[in-house]
Input
Amino acid sequence: MRILGIESSCDETAAAVVEDGRKILSSVIASQVEEHKLYGGVVPEIASRRHSEAICGVVREALEQSGCTLDQVDAIAVTYAPGLIGALLVGVNFAKGLSMSSGLPLVPVHHLRSHIAANYLSNPSLEPPFLCLVVSGGHTHLVSVESYTSLHVLGQTRDDAAGEAFDKAARAMGMPYPGGVHLDKLAEAGNPDAYRLPRPSVEGAPYDFSFSGLKTAVINLLHNASQKGATISTEDLAASFRKTAVDCLVRNTLRAAEDTSSRRIVIAGGVSANRLLRETLSQECAKRGWEFYRPELSLCGDNAAMVASQGYYEYQNGKKASCNLNACATMPIEVG
Ligand code: KG4
Ligand code: ZN
Output
């Protein structure tokens, strides 16, 4: 079964064709990041306009690259929640129009579920159940993935998402948006023990995260240094921040795995591209004899292949939308 996936939840317009949820026939991404960089973050109004301009060409190219015509596709899967509402609506309305004109079934897909599905594309043998740490720009969740379509949230961030904290700390250090990847690179050259930063935990909720205190500590440290005319090593600060954030993510993930007897650990979302997070969890899992899976780097960020993959499993489970489908800015992953 071939699924055409469409993604427009933030600042990437993407389309892809995937066979049986696992084999990528094509994957096209038009990124708007260069334009949002000028403003230091995503400007929702600009994002919606650029999606409208790009979507026809991106979908056409995905079909062409896959070697399929629309009548060789079996269903259309589209990201409908959560995300920027104006951005989501572009993909949802395009998919509805295409579904109505072609007669193909329309499958609504939750954005975080699709990030998890990026792992089905990168790891052919991976099947639920597993424990997944979902770390993106807008969300940080520890999820028990019981089946492809039955998910249960064990913990989540109480304030900033991990990616948001990476981006804000990077911005304070003078790096361009989105700073997570730049901070990650710079950290390779720094000493992770140079600066002591808080490692917040949430009392009584061992699987929940809190990153705003860590982000503020970095901002205050830079501010105090500039007032005193002291020099800060950006490499060392980047390395110290990355180590602290990764320690919090790894600590809660291992604790949840112990408590729920999960022996198969998966990471997903933009921050799963982080080198230290990938390395540390891989080593911790190896030490315990647990399985560890992560998406290949090209599938960590937003793309439509992951939407088509999750769409396949949702469709198998009977999920289908009518032409009344709406987009939602927020939606729990359990409901997805
Ligand atoms: O999943 P994603 O592409 O978009 C959302 O759904 O939010 O995640 C984007 C986030 C951004 O905050 C970006 O800075 C972060 O992922 N990110 C990273 C790295 N690569 C991307 N954060 C830390 N280290 C990285 N290597
Ligand atoms: Zn995302």
Observations:
- Residues 234-260 form the longest helix (27 residues).
- Residues 2-116+299-316 form a domain with the Nucleotidyltransferase; domain 5 fold (CATH 3.30.420.40).
- DSSP finds ten helices and ten strands in the chain.
